């Protein structure tokens, strides 16, 4: 039977404007900086400003997508937002994004949550919907993964914090990544490895359990995908993983490498293999930190940004893990013109345009952002800079957002 090709047509990353160098954090926490830089593999972490939340980041990533690619908002029939940093228990972030982008009213909008797996849940749901389009018709979905990774100040998780959003256009024109149509390789187990009670703004985690659970889920899903696809460890040009911190991707790669090496004698060294097949994707993760739901897709965007034409038509394996837990291993092939996407992804310009914070400023921004979470008094903040969309405060229990004039005019220019 004819299988319609589906997958990712376009991708754009929203990079928050502020960052903290992990060396400054190590110094403030009186920790050897090598633990953060080498032990965890990070370099810097994105720090969301008080004007940024999961809604503004999602909308900003989506606006960037429409600004940089030849895609019409009129074609969008579904918006799915994956997040574990929601700002409302009822209203969907997808509805806010839909409104800010003036998408068609004939559109299905909803959010999904399963810790860091939610972006993948959205991508897979949207792909199935795109594949099911009526003959001659086409379905296009906007899938956005948006999160703020926040742990207690001074806790072991603090150096793995991060923030950002990745917007993906999913369609039957998968110019960026065509998903392989194999049966799904899934794993679910009820485990308390990482969680955030609704009365807390920062997550709680059992670090060792979370790492063990991640690796167990990888072992299960990789074996299942191998069984249904007959693709082995060596068949992938690139292997991408959920990246709670960059060293975790190394641990994941190492586990698959060692499993493969048991029956294979001619393998390259572990380090050389990792440097060739996974490390090129991790540059952006090292700069932004954990994006939770968007972290795997930041790696995908980072791979395209880093490798350009060298990544064209290559086969990619992707592992998605959400604590709690749900995981999936799937695969696909990068588009034949992947090299021409570089300038549109948003990573290069986003990272180069950032402002460094001191440790004290990081604490101040963090405190201000957390205070606004539960503050129902409206205050007009000065967002500053060139943000596409800003959170301005809360009035009559409603969050007020402002879309910048620049974004409005860019949108008009795209429509014209
Ligand atoms: N120089 C170099 N390396 C050093 C060092 C030094 N001076 N000191 C320590 N290290 C190394 C350690 O050897 C260790 O490396 P290995 O794991 O390769 O042995 C690494 O630095 C970390 O050290 P610890 O294990 O002692 O660190 P920790 O216990 O303080 O915290 C952590 C590590 C548990 C991952 C913590 O950062 C954390 O809780 N993070 C959040 C949870 C997380 O990310 N879990 C991952 C799986 S869950 C998931 O994927 C979902 C999600 O997104 C959260």
Please describe what this structure looks like.
By secondary structure, this protein is an alpha+beta fold. It is 36% helix and 23% strand. The protein contains 13 helices and 17 strands. The chain has helices at residues 22-28, 33-39, 54-68, 93-100, 118-131, 207-229, 246-261, 270-277, 283-288, 295-307, 347-352, 359-373, 405-415, and strands at residues 7-14, 18-21, 44-47, 76-82, 108-112, 140-149, 162-171, 177-179, 185-188, 194-195, 204-205, 238-241, 315-322, 326-334, 355-356, 389-395, 398-403. Strands 1, 4, 5, 6, 7, 8, 9, 12, 13 and 14 form a ten-stranded mixed sheet that branches. It has a three-stranded mixed sheet with strand order 3-2-15. β4 (76-82), α4 and β5 form a beta-alpha-beta unit. α1 (22-28) packs antiparallel against α2 (33-39), α3 (54-68) packs across α4 and α6 packs across α7. The mean pLDDT is 93. The chain binds acetoacetyl-coenzyme A.
First and last CA, distance? 40 Å
The percent range for helix content is: 25-40%
Strand content: 15-25%
Low-pLDDT windows of residues = none
Number of helices: 13
Bound molecules: acetoacetyl-coenzyme A
H/E element order = EEHHEHEHEHEEEEEEHEHHHHEEHEHEEH
Can you tag this structure with a few keywords?
alpha+beta; 23% strand; 416 residues; 36% helix; 3-stranded mixed β-sheet
List the topology elements.
Layout: E1 7-14, E2 18-21, H1 22-28, H2 33-39, E3 44-47, H3 54-68, E4 76-82, H4 93-100, E5 108-112, H5 118-131, E6 140-149, E7 162-171, E8 177-179, E9 185-188, E10 194-195, E11 204-205, H6 207-229, E12 238-241, H7 246-261, H8 270-277, H9 283-288, H10 295-307, E13 315-322, E14 326-334, H11 347-352, E15 355-356, H12 359-373, E16 389-395, E17 398-403, H13 405-415
Parallel strand pairs: 2-15, 4-5, 4-6, 12-13
Antiparallel strand pairs: 1-7, 1-8, 2-3, 6-7, 8-14, 9-14, 10-11, 13-14, 16-17
Helix pairs in contact: 1-2, 3-4, 6-7
The structure holds acetoacetyl-coenzyme A.
Acetoacetyl-coenzyme A is lined by residues 32, 34-35, 38-40, 116, 156-157, 160, 193-194, 205, 207, 210-211, 214, 242, 244-245, 247-248, 290, 292, 321, 323.
């Amino acid at each position: 039977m004819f299988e319609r090709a589906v997958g990712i047509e376009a991708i754009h990353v929203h990079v928050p404007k502020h960052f903290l160098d992990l060396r400054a954090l190590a110094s403030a926490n009186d920790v050897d900086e090598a633990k953060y830089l080498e032990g965890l593999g990070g370099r810097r972490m994105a720090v969301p400003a008080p004007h940024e939340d999961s809604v503004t980041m999602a909308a900003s990533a989506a606006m960037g997508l429409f600004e940089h690619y030849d895609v019409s908002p009129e074609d969008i029939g579904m918006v799915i937002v994956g997040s574990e940093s929601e700002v409302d228990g009822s209203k969907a972030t997808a509805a806010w994004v839909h409104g800010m982008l003036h998408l068609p009213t004939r559109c299905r909008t909803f959010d999904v949550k399963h810790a860091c797996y939610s972006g993948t849940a959205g991508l897979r749901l949207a792909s199935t919907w795109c594949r099911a389009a009526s003959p001659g018709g086409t379905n296009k979905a906007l899938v956005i993964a948006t999160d703020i990774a926040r742990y207690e100040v001074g806790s072991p998780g603090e150096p793995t914090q991060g923030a950002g959003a990745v917007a993906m256009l999913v369609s039957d024109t998968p110019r960026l990544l065509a998903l392989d149509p194999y049966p799904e390789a899934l794993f679910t187990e009820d485990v308390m490895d990482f969680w955030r009670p609704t009365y807390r703004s920062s997550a709680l985690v059992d670090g060792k359990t979370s790492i063990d659970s991640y690796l167990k889920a990888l072992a299960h899903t990789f074996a299942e995908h191998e069984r249904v696809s007959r693709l082995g460890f060596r068949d992938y040009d690139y292997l991408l993983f959920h990246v709670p911190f960059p060293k975790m991707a190394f641990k994941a790669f190492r586990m698959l490498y060692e499993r493969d090496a048991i029956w294979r004698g001619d393998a390259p060294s572990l380090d050389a293999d990792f440097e060739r097949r996974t490390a090129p994707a991790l540059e952006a993760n090292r700069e932004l930190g954990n994006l939770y739901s968007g972290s795997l897709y930041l790696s995908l965007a980072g791979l395209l940004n880093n490798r350009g034409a060298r990544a064209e038509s290559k086969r990619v394996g992707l592992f998605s893990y959400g604590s709690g837990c749900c995981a999936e291993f799937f695969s696909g092939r990068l588009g034949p013109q992947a090299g021409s996407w570089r300038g549109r992804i948003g990573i290069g310009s986003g990272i180069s345009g950032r402002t460094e914070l001191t440790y004290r400023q990081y604490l101040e921004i963090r405190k201000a952002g957390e205070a606004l979470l539960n503050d129902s008094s409206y205050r007009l903040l000065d967002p500053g800079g060139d943000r596409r969309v800003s959170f301005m405060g809360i009035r009559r229990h409603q969050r007020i957002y402002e879309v910048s004039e620049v974004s409005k005019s860019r949108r008009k220019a795209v429509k014209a």
